[in-house]
Protein 1
Amino acid sequence: MKFEERELVLKDGRTCILKPTSPEYAQEMIDYMKKTAGETDFLLRYPDEVNFTLEKEKEILSGLLENPYAVMMMAIVDGHVAGNGSINGIGYKRKICHRCSLAIALYKEYWNLGIGKAMIGYMTELAREIGWKQVDLEVAAGNQQAIRLYEKCGFRESGRRHNALKSDDGTYSDEILMYKEL
Ligand SMILES: CC(C)(COP(=O)(O)OP(=O)(O)OC[C@H]1O[C@@H](n2cnc3c(N)ncnc32)[C@H](O)[C@@H]1OP(=O)(O)O)[C@@H](O)C(=O)NCCC(=O)NCCS
């Protein structure tokens, strides 16, 4: 969906712009998915699992921009992509269509500047405007930084999925399920 740009001043004094992720940023988004997947073990994809062609990525981003029930938000600092976040419905069946799910990842050099908190705040505001009643998310049990941030943004733990994640080195980790009522 299209939404208003929002500016915020970061902890280091720079300005960050939050705006809809548009198809012109397709190549930047592919680069971003690949690089962020390699910077942390807490994302679902490995870098070699990012295989979108430029055309496909453009098509996906155009579809999301025109979809009034999808939020795709990018953070820009000094003209560079700092990160991306999204909110999407869980499904269309009537018993679950009150719920949406949230995802977010920033390049490591932009962690701890306040971008995550601002993006989650803005994305949940938009989710409320769209009409969803609850935001759900899953986070790796070891991802303390993200869990603390989600708690600060009003999310609560609702459960734990045993051995939900298996890394290439063969180790397993649980996922924490979190929710926020809107
Ligand atoms: C998780 C992520 C989005 C957080 O974004 P961010 O911009 O770094 O977060 P913010 O700067 O807005 O806020 C961080 C907050 O967490 C706190 N925090 C930071 N590091 C922390 C740590 N190691 N332990 C506990 N709390 C921590 C800070 O105190 C800050 O709170 P404050 O602003 O009230 O002081 C970002 O680190 C990221 O992209 N990580 C990699 C991808 C990822 O894990 N995504 C989530 C998958 S579910």
Protein 2
Amino acid sequence: MKTFSQISPYQSTIRKAVHSNGIGLHTGKRINMTLSPADANMGIRFVRKDLGTITPIPAFMNRVVNTTMATTISEGKASVATTEHLLAAINGLAIDNITIEVDGPEVPIMDGSAGPFVNLLLGAGIRQQKSYRRLVKITREISFRDGDRLISINPYDGFKVTAEINFKHDTIKRQVYSIVLTPQKFIDDLCRARTFGFLEDVEKLQKNGLALGASLDNAVGMDRNGILNKEGLRFDNEFVRHKIVDIIGDMTLLGCPILGHIVAYKSGHSQHLKLMEAIAASPEAWEFVELKKNGQLSVLNKFVARTMEAGNRFLPILTPATSKRPVSAR
Ligand SMILES: [Zn+2]
């Protein structure tokens, strides 16, 4: 009997609405955010509350409009940047359905990690729903190469991520880390790992009116001599752990949980999107499944769909059917 390590068969949402606010990395302005429960099969949706009555933005790969430094998604005139750390927290805690309202063009950066979002979600409480999750089970390797960057996904009975980064900078150098994801492991080993940047890059960006909110309160900052943050690092290998947070956040945009092992070498947001597109273009290399509980274990329940011929039907299959329904901002 095949078991799938601690993957919930059922969809989840949060128990109640919760609020937070913080600085936007790019605008440097304060942004208010509300996370609310959503019905089963509604998926993850962003709403730009400051734009009045508009169509929500589904957290889905075909809504990605920019992967420079952060992952930005949009629908019509509405866009939301810096989605990846919040999406990582949602995915890391195995939450499927949630509505995220923001009153500005980006998710607040908080402390540069997924930790504050995890605390917010745990504070709201997580509620299991009656509907089964539909998971993408990888059955053959799918890979994408981009110069010396390489990302692949392989069959695995769970969700595992291995990442390697390699920077010339002495503080980072080569780091490799691998994790089989469960909510508890996401909380203990990943969520507190912060984003990082080099002082000279930030100075350049800020001269061009970008990254106006970037500071040592929301990133590990480095110059030629080492780390600028007085408090130092949260983990010896905080950099590669954060890379895995980014991968988990971006891969949320596939629209359903993954049974597979992602192996990423020097990847960034752009390569993560390309991997999702490669999965969509390779229906012979995965299938949709549902799991069921057998005691404490999750086991395969049934194949929902084999997609050998589905090819260009992949996107409609994954896109939440309800994603076009407009909602009004409260
Ligand atoms: Zn990040």
Protein 3
Amino acid sequence: MGLFSNIFGSKKKEEVLPPADYGLIKVDMHSHLIPGIDDGAQTLEESIELIKGLKELGFTTLITTPHIMSDFYRNKPETILPGLDLVREEIAKQGLGVTIHAAAEYYLDGGFEKKIKEEKLLSFGKENYLLFELSYLNRPDSMSRVIFDLISAGYKPILAHPERYPYFYDKFEVYKEIVDRGALLQLNTNSLTGYYSPGAKAIAERLIDEGLVSFIGTDTHKTGHVKALGMARQSPHLYRLIESGKLKNITLA
Ligand SMILES: [Fe+2]
């Protein structure tokens, strides 16, 4: 008895809830849908296939966020905006009924710190939201300074997929510090399915439980992501998060 109650008794039974409804938040603010400029969609056909999939899930406004990095993807408005026009034309031609805007997902490196001071960054929404991501391998020393610099420059920083940085897993208090410094956290919806790793799933659920999540994002690069988003609807954590009405996605509609 002892052994089994330890194994099975310690695991909390998950509540059975209805599937989560993305139609309630309408807006996705993290994806890679501009063809051929990063590791997302490579062709216009692929972009349209992904957009159709997101529409079927209930998203009607997409703010797509190509990578901007100093080395791999040196995107700038000149590479992003013409691609956006192509995608918009095709959406209109096919009558898909989806609104698409473009911003960017900035990778925190030396080049980004320089850009904050010297350039107008690709932000979105009335709040001037600015999406940024960190290295998956090394905790950057400059994160607090970058958050401060972004706020000073008039942006509202959003940290992309905080649950995907393993070096924070045993330092959960860092997430609260980031929020206290004035940044918001954007969870990848697919983390709740275990798509990325069991660790990312556990942290994603804890971030929701502790009320630290302001946005969810699909981070769609390929059809596998759209498929996983369908499965993520079964997550009780996602259901409760969307039903709470606290997500800011809808404010971007
Ligand atoms: Fe991304």
Protein 4
Amino acid sequence: MKSEKKEELNNCELLNPSCDDVVSPAHYNDTTSSLNCQSLENELKKKWIPKKLLSERLVLCYYRLDLEKKAERVVNCGTFLEFGRVEELGGVPPGAPGRCSGDAPTSTNFKLHKANFCRDRLCPMCSWRRSYKIFGQVSEIMNLIGSDYDFLFLTLTVPNCTADELVRTLNSMSKAWLNLVRHKRIKSILKGFFKALEITYNKSADTYHPHFHAVLAVPKRYFKSELYIHRDEWLVMWQKAMNDYSITQVDVRKARSKKDLKFADTAVSSLSSAVAEIAKYAVKSSDYLFDDESLTDKVVSVLVPALAGRRLCSFGGCFLKAHQVLQLDDAEDGDLIHIDGELRSDIAVQIYRYGWSCGTYKLVEIRQKEKNSD
Ligand SMILES: [Zn+2]
């Protein structure tokens, strides 16, 4: 069965060549274009192809678990990618003020313009895009509110649990989070938060380790007043919220920008990156895709129902308000293509279309982008 499915994976409907065929771009008459897209080819090789290959391993696992619908969705994830090429003159894109029509470009950037993503929770390709998107959103929010508050990093853990206990543990943690942020002591300091769920898998003990990473916005006077909450108090409040006094680990620390930054703007942007760092993967693919197929199948069959319909990250208070002011879309279910407002379609000069075939991305077409066209 595995070899049949593997063969299916290699048949790319977009291109339909045999594996030895060289795919010639249909409208490929600009010889300089091939030289110009070297940076894009490198990015595909370094970032996109490894993710797509991991997604294919997930597809095989879904087939083995008879999760055919999921397998078919993921197999079609990222089978075509279109990138817009934007030429800039010293950072000035075409058509922008200060750019003369005869000026030669000094840099070429490629931005994803169109793609077909499956949005499966465990798809490594989509998880990667989602983590980028959340990172971008948190950075934007921090740039807006970063100088108004101080910020805490809070990590809330529970004892490792077995596969059978995972869903129940995740449900208890969601409820406990609500209890925690409604606690009188915390309510008095909490101005907003960003929270993300992460689950890791312990192979040797065959247990799961779910935990929350959160960033809390607190008043500027938090560290020098009666508002300050000691780490041991955080632990007691989390134990109480979880109704589990065996919990021993709570980590809380001040979010800091690099010490040597004297200018407020730079300090805020350094702080944003530190905060956005927590917007990582809910589950890293290395925690469920193994060389051992039976182990992969076992862990994936536990994670699929545990993650189904579950919110993996959320914004509250001033973070949520900033999210609305910035008109950001849903961090989990929103657009996975334009993840940081990256391509204005009217400034791309050329579109490069790639198709997935035989374990790699091949250039299918290069076309000129007409102004304001889609
Ligand atoms: Zn996907």
